[in-house]
Design brief:
- The structure is a single chain.
- With about 400 residues, the chain is an alpha/beta fold.
- It folds into 2 domains: about 170 residues, 3-Layer(aba) Sandwich (Rossmann fold), CATH 3.40.50; about 200 residues, Dehydroquinate synthase-like - alpha domain (Dehydroquinate synthase-like, alpha domain, Up-down Bundle), CATH 1.20.1090.10.
- It is built from 14 helices and 9 strands.
Length: about 400
Amino acid sequence: MVEDDYSKLRKFVAPEFIFGAGAASLAGQYAANLSIKKPLVVTGPHLDALGVSGRVIDSLTSEGVSSVLYAGVTPNPRDSEVMTGAEIFLKNGCDAIVAVGGGSPMDCAKAIGIVCTNDRHVLDFEGVDNVERPGPPLICIPTTAGSAADISQFCIINATERKVKIAIVSKTMVPDVALIDPLLTVTMDEKLTAHTGLDVLTHATEAYVSNASSAFTDLNALEAVRLVKNHLLTAVREPNNLDARTGMMLASTYAGLAFSNAILGAVHAIAHSLGGLLDLPHGLCNAILLDHVVAYNFDAASDKYIKLGKTLGAHYPANATRDEIKGNTLEVFRNLKKDVGVSDNLCELGMSTDDLPLLAGNALADACMLTNPKHPTANEIMEILKESC
């Protein structure tokens, strides 16, 4: 395979972000810097019960910034939750949004903002560059090392009537400020740590082999993979190990910078389809699908997959055949999944053969499929799904 032509025109977008232990405590300071008077704090009920959003609200209050809480966001945020949040925003005269949580609250917050400024239903923005007016100021405070919604130009929302997750891709989705605090991730249990960590690996892998990759995204993607290899297993086994948590949060940030600009691929396109139809955890769907999509894509981006394999610790004997090289690459992806305890399959999670045509059709229509290095047919997607059972 020929190396990427890095002379091609590429753009790179990223927000201002502050990384490190204690970054979340700066919420009030940054709100004041942005002249925010009354933000809507968007989070989920679990994080609110843990007091995470409360500490952010205390930081806002300490700087004289009053706020309104919306803690009604569920995993795979629904279009109805976005519209409810927008109603609360407008009813209370809010002028900004502070998102606290994983990908779900942050995506919901992004969507609430553009609904309010454009006076349209959230599903009207589906696709690429369909947002006319940017939302109000947005501060994101991630609590998982996985989604990187805090720095990306992606927003994923569950269109409940259609039973599919839609992608809104626009630079207006990039937050104004991200406060990236590894201390907030110690509340994640073993399973969530594994799922979100493999989501990081998926982001980095898909960005690296994307047909829209660049020198800038490749650099970030490979570093993210290196950090996942070095820190994910420790973060799963030792949840209070701050070095491992910091390493994974840094990996998530690097991977986010990569995929926000190189976009993604078939893993995410299929995972969005699964999440919308069966309401499955996004990180888990990615974890289950990743090695099967690597196997499908391998011949279309073999040099890059070999680099990813080497970064994950694969060894390639000098006399190895092409099939052996592919097998060694797949082995390191599959071993990492096994080591962090992910052995689920899609059939166990509720997928049936009757679902396959709809899942394949929705995946083909997903914006992420456009940058996959290989363009699958519906039958090929159905085969990937069968192999994931």
